[in-house]
UniProtKB/TrEMBL annotation:
PROSITE patterns: RADICAL_SAM. It comes from Nitrospina gracilis (strain 3/211). [4Fe-4S] cluster binds at residues 109, 113, 116. This is Uncharacterized KamA family protein aq_1632. The keyword Cell wall biogenesis/degradation does not apply.
Length: 393
């Protein structure tokens, strides 16, 4: 059942590798060819995660997640493909959907995914992230419609618990914030950081309350990441009171195979971690080798879902477009069917759209022929008000 990691460090902290030359399996030729890629898009991994790679397989999916690819240098995509910066409402805070605000609390991850949609944050001239959340907290306090706060970056769990806890504590003190989310790939990249930290357990026990939970938004891309260590880390989080769910982009060469994706979704469901979103890979600069056409990706997603139980197939396949999360619902011989799952403008919240198919499309913007659309008329939504008034205790 478990994938065994070859990691010999046991419970120890894995050593981080920040230079291609520290990866013994790469030849001098590889290093020379990949150096310009790692100069443009930061490289970082760690010994534990490296131990999951099968170096005899040049197409190994785990390798693809963290080892640069020369095709990243192809001119394709934009650095901020979902225009996140345009939803920035203060230093380190984004607010796109009524109920949810994002606090960008750091710009470091335990390894860097080559296909990251936030790779701009890791560049020297970017200052969207701040460790000082004063401005963000003030904004959240002034916006009672914000019931969910997502701590993200970067990876909040790379921070020591002593640095993370005061952030959680201050967000928890805001009455109208019910759910605190932590977006993290630490359970995949470095699960030892989780289960060796009793203060982390205490933090979840203290702040993930019966009516105000902390959700850990985990990020497993491939079933081979679900090692014994990773499962232990997930179990630790759940036993500490966190609700854990998973979201993953569909990445070419990693999980763009119905068998692989269904194994990932099924195993997550066995562990008790519902698959939440499968994202279509964003057209971020450097992401050409990792993406695939939308219609192809949708077919893979649907074939994967067909191989799963109801609990394994709860994920939705969505695009994080600048106008909102657009779910790809289905295909017919001529058309493709979309629906907004979340919309930046309330009036789009129920919008259903039918477009003529385009097998070459990599993003929503590549669909030009609208066949039909429908919006449920809701007066409140039209007035840009939240759908429900909720009196928080
Ligand atoms: S863990 Fe998330 S933020 Fe970090 S590199 Fe991967 S996708 Fe980007």
């Amino acid at each position: 059942m478990f994938h065994k990691s070859q990691y010999k460090g046991g419970d120890m902290k894995p050593k981080y590798l920040t230079k291609l030359g520290q990866v013994p399996q790469l030849s001098q030729e590889d290093i020379k060819a990949l150096a310009p890629v790692s100069e443009q898009f930061i490289f970082r991994t760690n010994e534990y995660y490296q131990s999951l790679i099968d170096w005899d397989d040049p197409n190994d999916p785990i390798r693809k997640i963290v080892v640069p690819d020369v095709s990243e240098l192809n001119e394709w995509g934009r650095l901020d493909a979902s225009d996140e910066e345009s939803y920035t409402v203060g230093h380190g805070i984004e607010h796109k959907y009524d109920s949810t605000a994002l606090l960008l609390v750091n710009e470091v991850c335990a390894a860097y995914c080559r296909f990251c949609f936030r790779k701009r944050l890791f560049m020297d001239d970017n200052d969207e992230v701040t460790k000082d959340i004063t401005e963000g907290l003030a904004y959240i306090r002034e916006h009672p419609e914000i019931s969910n706060v997502l701590l993200t970056g970067g990876d909040p769990l790379i921070m020591s618990t002593s640095k993370l806890e005061p952030i959680i504590q201050q967000v928890r003190e805001i009455d109208h914030v019910r759910i605190i989310r932590i977006g993290t790939k630490i359970p995949a990249f470095n699960p030892m950081r989780i289960y060796n930290d009793d203060s982390l357990r205490a933090m979840f026990e203290k702040y993930s309350l019966p009516e105000k939970r902390i959700y850990v938004m985990a990020h497993f891309n491939h079933p081979r990441e679900l090692t014994q260590e990773a499962v232990r880390g997930l179990d630790f989080l759940m036993k500490s009171g966190a609700v854990v769910i998973n979201q993953t982009p569909m990445i070419a060469g990693v999980n763009d195979d119905p068998q692989v994706l269904s194994e990932l979704m099924n195993r997550l469901s066995y562990i008790g971690v519902p698959p939440y979103y499968v994202f279509h890979c964003r057209p971020t600069l450097g992401n050409r080798p990792y993406t695939l056409p939308i219609e192809k990706a949708y077919e893979i997603f649907e074939l994967a879902r067909m191989r799963g139980s109801g609990l394994a197939k709860r994920a939705r396949f969505v695009m994080s477009h600048s106008t909102g999360k657009i779910e790809i619902i289905g295909l017919s011989a001529r058309n493709i069917y979309f629906k907004y799952q979340r919309a930046a403008e309330n009036r789009n919240s129920s919008r259903f759209m039918v477009y003529k198919r385009n097998p070459e499309a990599f993003w929503f913007d590549d669909y030009n022929e609208l066949v039909d659309d429908y919006i449920l008329e809701d007066e409140r939504a039209m007035r840009q008000e939240p759908a429900f008034d909720f009196e928080y205790a």
